[in-house]
Amino acid sequence: MNLRVGIDVGGTFTDLALFDPESQELRITKSASTPEDPIKGVTAVMEKAGISTAQVRTLIHGTTMATNALLERTKALPALIATAGFRDVPFIQRINRKHHYDLDWDKPTPFVDRRHCFEAVERLNYKGEVATPLDEEGARGIVAQIKGLGIRDIAVSFLFSYVNPVHELRMRELIEEVYPEATVSVSHEVYPRWREYDRTSTVLADAFLKSLIEEYIQNLAGGLGGGDGSMSFLIMKSNGGVQDYAAASSKPVDLLVSGPVGGVLSGGFLGSLTGHENLISMDMGGTSFDVSLIQGGEASRTMEFEIEWGLPVFTPMIDVKTIGAGGGSIGWVDKGGLLRVGPESAGAHPGPACYGRGGEAATVTDANLYLSRINPGYFLGGELTLDESAARASLDRLGAALGMDTGEVASAMVELVDFNMVNAIRLISIDRGLDPREFTLVSFGGAGSLHAVALAEIIGINDVLVPIHQGVFSAFGLMTADMRVDESVTGSFRSDNLELARVNDVIERLRAQATGRLRREGYEGAPKIEATIELRYLGQNYNTEVTVPLENGKLGAAGLDTILESFDAEHRRRYGYDIHGEVVEFINFNVTAIGVTDKPVIPRIAEGGAAKARDERSVYFKQVGWARASIYERAALRAGNTFEGPAVIEEPTATTLLHPGHELTVDEFGNLLISPLENRIPTRSQ
Amino acid sequence: MAQQSIEESVDQVTLQVVNNYLVTTAREMGIAMRNTAYSPLFNEGLDFSCAIFDPDGEMIAQAEFCPAQLGAIIYVVEWTIHEIERENFHPGDIVLHNDPFRGGCHLPEYCVIRPVFSEDELIGFVANIGHMTEVGGKVPGGFPGDATEVFQEGIRIPPVKIRDRGHDVETVWNIILANVRTPKVSYGDMMAMIGSLHIGERRMIEAAAKYGVDRLHEITEAMKDYSERRMRAEIAEMPDGVYELERWVADDDGITEEPAKLQLKVTIDGDDMIVDFTGSDRQRKGPVNCTYGVTASGTYNAVMHLTDSSIPSNHGCYRPVRIIAPAGTIVNVEYPGASVGGNSEIQPHIVDAVFGALATALPTRVPAECGGTNSLVSFGGIHPDNGEPFAGLVNEGCGWGGRPEKDGNNTLCQYVGNCACQPVEVLETRYPILHDFFAIAEGSAGAGRNRGGFGSERQFRVECDELRVNGFVERVKIGPYGLFGGEEGGLAGIEIARAGGDFETPRDAVGVPCDGKFSDVLLRRGDRLRSYCAGGAGYGSPLERDLDLIEVDVREGFIAREQAEESYGVVVTADGAVDKEASERRRAELAGRQVG
Prior knowledge:
Chain A is α+β, with helices and mostly antiparallel strands. Chain A folds into six domains: 3-70 and 214-258, 2-Layer Sandwich (Nucleotidyltransferase, domain 5); 74-208; 260-312 and 440-477, Nucleotidyltransferase, domain 5; 329-417, no CATH class; 483-595, Dna Ligase, domain 1; 615-676, no CATH class. Helices cover 29% and strands 29% of the residues of chain A. In chain A, the strands form nine sheets. In chain A, strands 13, 14, 15, 18, 21, 22, 31, 34 and 35 form a nine-stranded mixed sheet that branches. In chain A, strands 3-2-1-4-11-12 form a six-stranded mixed sheet. In chain A, helix 2 (65-72) packs across helix 7 (196-224) and helix 9 crosses helix 11. Chain B has 596 residues and is of the alpha+beta class. Chain B folds into three domains: 3-227, no CATH class; 367-540, no CATH class; 544-595, no CATH class. Chain B has 13 helices and 20 strands. Chain B is globular, with a radius of gyration of 25 Å. At the A-B interface, helix 3, helix 7, helix 11 and helix 15 of A face helix 1, helix 5, helix 6, helix 7 and helix 9 of B.
């Protein structure tokens, strides 16, 4: 057998999706996660799917391990070796604060204790010249001290190492010499950019994760018997590419959004399959709402992740915005007497009031249940019967504080959580200068499709795509991943003194680095190469990224002018002006090597005539109030089925709400495409 | 269910949605500003603020920028509308304004204002106010600590159109750029400010298109009413009464060593508050005076810190508070008095003074005084590596005061700013200086049951032939006050060492009259400058501080064992453990001494 398998380990469920290229069969399975020993959950889900590692050619794993470890701080902190005079960089931070007027706010605690911050005598100036040579004897002494303390992970962050890494590299050699058992993260490798706090914060996160991820991956590989060479075991990175498991612990900050990225890839894959190039992908579960943007088939990317406000980690990643909005989000009354929803969630325990596990607070799921959008007898396919009277009581308690009746509270809660999600969508679209109305909304996760049409309506999005397997969509996405390495370096070229050959040298060096790493991560073919340069007007401190027009891997003679023109144009588009003719600095060079992998083939479903409703019930919709809605079973739908709202489409792990005035069409793969009957809003902005 | 009340619940939603939209817009303007500005004070220090106004000039939204500017910008916009007159605004206009005597806060604060039109109707204003590093005047980098009139502080710009119906007014640009030392950087910074307005304008027009001009106005009126209602509810909870306070608010004024005094009377009467500064010192010769806008800004800031921070910050918040600041005093400077430091270094003391006056009324909310200084050092010269003129302004984080329930934060911008520190790697790339250290000032926190936060300290060497340096540092002589038995926070200061020599105070080193406020001191290659920023004061008696917390402070190197014993009566052994018995004896001894 030659199976391609994706396994997504979440907090509640471990999801599996597999594709058999011989039989073209696509299968999904779900089983409970085992947080105390994730390997058990993985083997359990494989058993449930009826497969063994011997049948698997490629296994791709997405994990929230790195994020959870950083959020929960469940392991020992690393030690830091900094330039003499600068060990307090993680504590001083940037001296600004999250909110105004909040005396109660506390500065974030860094991932290091101050007594474990050591100072090596060394100094480079801004040009990378050695102002003070590294005191090697002193440095060895520091390492011996750290060894004596039994600290396993070491971060090194020296000033201006992004210009000249000589002292950081030597420091690593000294650590390996004195304390070979230690893990080492050096700042210029993890994040070779200026701003010492950003770089130090990133390298501390990397060091914090290093021994943990190393152990986790090795145990998992051992548990899967992945060491025998017959199966390729790959780990999903935040950048949406996969890498061989053995390489995953070399830079563990790369795994930060390894979990949610699978869903984004699924969205992109399905989008290209169905001819939707511009997508906003939304994943709404019990506690959180993850949203990302795909433009022209490419997921949008960022460099910055905040563990919490003020604790940044800089690493190339798919831009996933997460907010506390889900089925479990709790409704409450603020001091000014206004109703608010979330970010606090009832979680799985006690869960929404209607779970009947002792939850008292009214949640979004309780509101949806009261509004009859959820079928109490068909939650998780009937595994859990929802308690309608408990939901009602929770809503009434909240309503009493607001002077609202049950229905008013329920509908207001749904609207507020919708608007919170709309704001998150704005952050990844409008705030990046992109018009969300030009995108299709892809909705998945247990709660997503109850809200998706309403969100689309508020923002003015025309089409909503509810994909097949919306309950295990992330695991499905893992199977579609390519291999991908992003390499970057800070240069310092100026447009008034620029040589094409030097620019090409930098790009060539990065290309060699990226393809080399891709090979080490397990890719054997010829990779696809993409390059960008980040530029700014001389004097600015932030950059604008421009694509490099490569011809045979090189920049042609006219290429430099094209880059400068694109920069002016992009600056104008984003900020409303350019300073044409001003000296432009070429700051960061980025090269990406992509190893394209085989993709699963999605089977087509049978065609059918008119869809048959299974049932009918009264459901609340904002526009029309209570209305009789047809209830459809998703598994019974056939390609070409078309019907109008008000309707509810039920499947074991999710519910899709079709509003009045909207039409649903089932495509050849079983995806649901929802659009308004009349295009109310032009798809292009004026 | 009743249709009517569903509509009301929808209105709640609309109010929140529009409020979030406008706050996000202000934030987006700020990100554009940061991304495009030239000077490190803007793109790293974030010393600017963006806000949105209704057609009457009342603020309807702001994001988390610099509170001092946000407090004062309301007067800048009001004055601009008054002086230009509403009918003279056209689409594509941009007004520039920095005049402290026309509603401004101090001269380096440049404000650009753009009227926004939906078709032909004025629907509001978007504005960006930012601290320009170089503004002309007697020294590079602004902040002449010994200025005696506004003309020495830089070029004064009353509200003038710098862009008229979309076209640059070249004469205005020419005059301004001819009067600053770094025209290239100043031009880049002003373009960044103007660019941010473009984004704000676009978003406002989109909102008007979505809701309709009249409906949008109704919603923003409701937003202000909502904030006012919540602010009044908070004030109504404060105990009624008249609370008075007298306090030093300036160490000296850069000219003479005499400190300046503030007189304050806060009246809480139902849901109204009156803050009366009558009796404060006459305005001083040196630049420690505040404009009315600065005083009002500091007062609003204090009130907003003492109330729920989640109240949307807009004009409605200001309505319940009345401020009385007599002209010709340090809290309302008259033309042409010097005022460049009032905004940055005196305003934090106004916040602390309002806090102090209300400490007994609100003992569970008011913290001890914060370090209250930015320890500002500005400088300029010619960069030896590229021959270009440069100007810089370095700001520091101070320790905040101990709080009723916990310690103060370390190294934060004082209350009225929310500026970031500029990374050492950025400062050294832009300016010819090389740092020896940038660190937490150990031992600088005032002792207390809940101690203050720690300030920071830095030291750098000069790497060019001539560096012209100015200082504007408060808390050099008078430290932050402790509360309920907490001790004073540590002092701030500047010291100078000639190449190869020892550190001396500026008075000893170069003979200036005041150690914290001076201008145009010439440093040469190899000379060094050290500046340290004040720690916060303590809250409650240090003898009541939890022993474990002291053990952590000693272990982490924040305080020395000697300080643990002297200030807290806690004996820590050489291996870092607290000796409980010895500590009890020591504490009893110290308590006895206090009583005696």
